[in-house]
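Appendix B, Record 12. Input sequence as logged:
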Amino acid sequence: MREKLMGGFAPRFSEVLKRLDLEEPLRIAMNANVEDVDRVLAQGRANSLSDFAVLISPAAERSLETLCRLSQRLTQQHFGKTIRMFAPLYLSNECVNICKYCGFSRHNDIPRITLAIEEVEREAVLLSQQGFRSILLVAGEHPKYVSNGYVEEAVRRLAPRFPSIALELGPLETPAYQPLTEAGCEALIVYQETYHKDTYKALHTAGPKKHFYWRMDTAERAYEAGFRRLGIGALFGLHDWREEALALAAHTQHLLKTCWKAQINVSLPRMRPAAGEFEQVEFLPDHHFVQLITALRLFAPHAGITLSTREPATLRDGLIPIGITSMSAGSSTEPGGYSSFDETSFKPTKTQEGEQFHIADERPPAEVAAAIAKVGYEAVWKDFDQALLAAV
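Logged structural output:
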């Protein structure tokens, strides 16, 4: 059921975005001065989208150390000194979409792989042996995976071994999500990629992913199906990073209000090398990346922030104490990729030609966990069990 607010049903975020004038907060971001920044920092929180705009402004760059300190304090207050660990397991790289930036785009000449259920189980065993109890099942957007019960069966097979199973696949309507939650899936991840409509249209030229607003409301449809974790994000490198950040922050705020029974998580992936000839048009340098993470924490203290292996090891280690709540490790972005990993080093022994993108942090999970412990945090491999729901 859709949540009711103020006596009526809450609008979908797509409707909110249509009415939201992002030009004003963007103007605030580009024109903020030191006094504006000091005012927001003195609050210890970004209480509005305008405050968030101030924190991602050029003027706020000189206050990065203060931003990091405030972000660290808020994160520890709400999440403790813990980092949730998970791993992606790619089921298939077949896709019906043409997305110019994605390695799985149907126009790219890569080996197309779809794992049999037995192969999915074999990959999952390898991940469980590394300590993972939280897993993200990923697939290219192809309708056959849901219509024939493939994903549902994969979830059922893996549920006894993984208490937390998340999905990242093509958007569905609420009724199509319900069998997946019933099978044991608890989380749904969907990236809008870019919130800029014209850029979105230019980059998605064929396939169901062309539908900009329908994709935007996926998290809310999933919430109605019973998912208890919802993840959203933008892919930085497709459009102006500050404009993307403002829309993403507004989306996060909306979901925290309307999907209040679920944990909301935000990912901030940056472009990585992938098959195809796409060149990113807007760079998000490291210092702006740190600024964005800390500003988001001050704006949405209760939202989780996920950091993937797209980022290099040294940067990931440095970001652990300042706002991150979950990290992937030892990742492969090719279906069946873990079966080619060396048993000792847990690194690929061959080129993964069917990968979605090439990761930057290739350390095995144990090494990432050790890096987390080194800065005084705890790597959490399991933080949920389906039995908790039965006890409610």
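The mean pLDDT is 92.
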